[in-house]
Specification:
The protein is of the alpha/beta class. The strands form five sheets. The protein has a nine-stranded mixed beta sheet, with helices on both faces. A seven-stranded mixed beta sheet has the order 3-4-2-1-5-6-7, with helices on both faces. It has a two-stranded parallel ribbon with strand order 14-17. The two termini are about 55 Å apart.
Length: about 675
């Protein structure tokens, strides 16, 4: 019974259509009756029967026919609270057409009527049809007039006088419950300047924003240009950010195309909007055709990058998804999320460390993943400066042990998550990630040369039985794994990134701590980072280092100021910015490539491939074995050993006590 009720429940637009149809039937009858009544001086008894009979016989079929004509003109599905000139012309066109048909048909089928009947009846019909449909607009104007006298209303500047801006303006005017009052409009098109839109002046272009805010006492700004590029949006929002106004914007062009344009659809401006870079575009169909039907392992799958990798892989039909993480809480969270969203997914969530060669061997032997995304790593610069041996144990040695197991058990592709801090590193974290890149390049070179047996098996305890050595060699002879690296900049919103730290400091009332006023970093979003990782899996031929063209770098100090403003405070007035000095191992800027590397284009213009830097692979592998022993003995000269292996590593001092500001430039 409940299902039947739900089945016959009418939607709002259907109820409105029924109401309008009923109204139209009534006013069409009334319009032509009034025309006759007026013709004979408002005395019904004076109307001749030769006119009454044709009217009675024809008016009802005519009214029904009008409804059929009006429907293609969308007179029953329009949003009349936002009706404008286009809708007015549609109503007039439909009314004129039916009025002409009325005159022709009643004359041919019944009797010739007075000329005033045709003319006045058609005019009355058009006016009555227009009246009800445009009544909401008339009422909104009255509310707007009253609202303009309300001093408690928020005074809004609207940026964008295009279609989206006009829809926002109409929505504000029609919505009596909102406390917004649009007082001026900004648009870069000079043809619109010094003109009005529904009574609101277009006062100039972006260069007039600051003056208009002061002149019109604006305290809120709506950005309504969904087609604006990232650079255009950044430039305009940076001007707006110099004011004390609250900023709102439309989500994007997609919502505009769907018609989801209203004040309620506006969202806060985020720091990402101020970066001024178009999001990287990827052919995800190609990516997920590659992933579909494969067994996929994500190490560090509970982290910010790893978990997003798991989400996107899970959404496109892998044969099996294996998540490995050392931190059980993160692993449990992503397990619950994926099981709820993808109940049929073959999901394995495992706890373990990439440092444990025995664990990695058994994992690969049991599950035989075809594709590995290696996201497990220590990444915090100051923490690794204080614990350099742990950085070596986890990053390069963990990568080595995972890569060795992947090679031995037939993995097709192995994708390493690297960082721009691996380029000419000045801290142990960056140097450890450069070691990771050198490891995957060594593995790739040995496999292509058919010499995979020469790669040593590194372990701190006996993890492979002696009688299995022959079997291992046979497996290594068949190794075909392709190893690649993906080099990132800083990821907005990732664990330990600068934005959450700044937000916590702002919530506490400041100060916001930045290491240096001139420090700059490249930034990307988590979805972009994950898209690049997935693309690396499809473009890989082995040995490449994929590099994203991340646009212009951003000053961390500017990022802090923007975030303070977006939080509703004034930098250095409400929230102080404190400069604490560069940390040991920290650079003022990060690089994406070393001088020795060259760039090659890929199918995506924003993704490049850095050519491998030649080095003595055999000497490197021998040195790596020595480095492992030194790390597990916790030797204090570990930095010097790393410097001997990574010639581009230039450590810049010893570590000090970590402060909140130490997070300001982390990946």
């Amino acid at each position: 019974m409940g299902e039947q009720k739900k089945k016959f429940k009418l939607e709002y637009w259907q109820l409105m259509a029924i109401f309008l149809i009923s109204y139209d039937l009534l006013v069409i009858h009334a319009a032509y009756f009034c025309a006759l009544w007026l013709r004979f001086d408002f005395v019904f008894s004076r109307i001749p029967e030769e006119y009454i009979l044709p009217y009675r016989g024809f008016i009802t079929p005519y009214a029904v026919g009008c409804i059929l004509v009006f429907w293609p003109f969308r007179m029953y599905r329009g949003m009349w609270s936002l009706a404008g000139l286009k809708e007015l012309l549609q109503v007039l066109e439909a009314s004129l057409l039916t009025s002409v048909l009325h005159g022709v048909l009643i004359t041919l089928l019944y009797h010739r009527m007075p000329i005033s009947y045709y003319v006045i009846g058609g005019v009355f019909q058009a006016l009555m049809l227009i009246f009800l449909r445009f009544l909401p607009r008339l009422l909104s104007y009255e509310r707007l007039r009253q609202h303009r006298g309300d001093e408690t209303a928020d005074r809004v500047m609207l940026i964008g006088a295009g279609a989206a801006g006009q829809m926002i303006l109409h929505d504000v005017q029609a919505n009596g419950a909102t406390n917004d009052r649009i007082v001026c409009v900004i648009d870069d098109n000079p043809n619109k300047w010094n003109r009005d839109i529904d009574g609101v002046p277009v006062v100039g272009g972006r260069e007039d924003i600051l003056a208009a805010v002061e002149r019109y006492h604006v305290n809120k700004i709506f950005f309504a240009i969904p087609s604006a590029s990232a650079e255009q949006k950044r430039d305009i929002l940076n001007i707006c950010n110099e004011t004390d106004c609250e900023l709102k914007q439309l989500p994007g062009l997609y919502q505009f195309v769907l018609g989801e344009v209203s004040v309620s659809a506006m969202k806060d401006v985020s720091v990402e909007d101020l970066l001024g870079r178009e999001p990287i575009q990827t052919d995800m169909k190609e990516v997920f055709q590659f992933v579909h039907g494969k067994s996929v392992l994500v190490t560090g799958g509970g982290g910010s990058i790893g978990s997003e990798l798991c989400r996107q892989v899970a959404a496109h039909g892998p044969r099996q998804l294996i998540i490995l993480d050392i931190y059980e809480n993160n692993a449990y969270d992503i397990q619950l999320e994926l099981r709820e969203k993808y109940p049929t997914l073959d999901l394995k969530v495992l706890i373990g460390s990439v440092r444990d060669s025995g664990r990695m061997m058994s994992l690969f032997a049991e599950y035989r993943p075809q594709l590995v995304y290696h996201a497990a790593a220590h990444k915090h610069v100051p923490l690794m400066e204080d614990s350099p041996c742990e950085a070596i144990k986890n990053n390069p040695l963990g990568t080595f042990k995972t890569a060795y197991a992947a090679m031995m058990y037939g993995c097709e592709r192995f994708v390493l998550i690297s960082t721009d801090k691996a380029v000419n590193p000045t801290n142990i974290m960056g140097a450890s990630k450069r070691l990771c890149e050198m490891i995957i390049q060594s593995f790739d070179a040995k496999i292509k040369a058919g010499r995979a047996r020469e790669i040593p098996l590194l372990y701190t305890h006996d993890s492979l039985p002696v009688d299995a050595a022959a079997a291992r060699d046979r497996q290594l002879d068949r190794a075909r794994t392709e190893f690649v690296a993906v080099r990132f900049g800083n990821v907005l919103g990732s664990n330990g990134s600068v934005i959450p730290v700044f937000r916590r400091q702002i919530e506490k009332g400041g100060p916001v701590t930045v290491t240096h006023p001139d420090i700059i970093r490249y930034f990307m979003t988590v979805p972009e980072a994950v898209s690049l990782v997935l693309l690396a899996g499809t473009y890989a031929r082995g040995g490449e280092i994929f590099v994203l063209d991340m646009g212009s770098p951003v000053k961390i100090a500017d990022l802090a100021r923007n975030l303070i403003k977006l939080s509703g405070f004034k930098p250095d007035v409400d929230i102080k910015i404190k400069y604490t000095g560069l940390r040991p191992g920290e650079k003022l800027y990060e690089e994406k490539l070393m001088e020795e590397e060259g760039l090659r284009r890929t199918e995506n213009k924003l993704i490049h491939i850095g050519s491998p830097i030649p080095f003595d692979i055999d000497a490197f592998l021998r040195a790596l074995s020595v480095l492992m022993q030194a790390a597990y003995r916790n030797r204090t000269d570990i930095r010097e050993l790393v410097r001997q292996i990574v010639p581009t590593f230039h450590p810049s001092g010893v570590s000090g006590e970590e402060t909140d500001s130490d997070h300001a430039a982390e990946t």
